Amino acid sequence: MKNTKNNRWVKNEEIDLEVCGDGVARKILAYTDEIMCVENHFKKGSVGALHCHPHTQITYIVSGVFEFEIDGVKKIVRAGDTMLKKDGVIHGCVCLEEGVLVDFFAPMREDFV
User: Fold this and answer.
1) What is the 8-class DSSP label of residue 43?
2) 3-state SS of the chain: helix, strand, coil percent to 5?
3) How far apart are alpha carbons 61 and 2 in whole angstroms?
4) CATH number reported for the structural domain that contains residue 59 in this entry
């Protein structure tokens, strides 16, 4: 995995996809200690298991259709939608149509690098 910490310019095509689950892969894009950008690729039917972490997270749906659960509430989201998940809130998703999500974490996810 290429270290992109504190890099001003991160070219997506230079970052390899890292498999992180059945049908799920990610690219760690630009980040500092304070914030991190991660691109997630989901195949249809793949699951982002329910979990929580001590980071505030914003997710932007680039493509696809997902059923997200945040703090016990489920909603269908599509390209252009965003979700806010404050630190400690339980959340997860199921991919209904293959797609890409971009996550922003504050602070950065040390467990990802």
Assistant:
1) -
2) 5, 60, 35
3) 24
4) 2.60.120.10
| Closest-CA residue to 62 (of 86, 35, 29) | 29
Beta-ladder partners of 50 = none
Report d(CA 29, CA 68) in Å as an integer: 23
Position 38 scores a pLDDT of 98
Tally the domains of the chain: 1
Region 9-20: what's the mean pLDDT? 95
Decide if 94 is inside a domain. yes
Residue 1, pLDDT > 80, answer: no
Length of the chain (residues): 113
Provide long-range contacts, Cβ within 8 A and 24+ apart, for 68-77.
Answer: 68/92, 68/93, 69/93
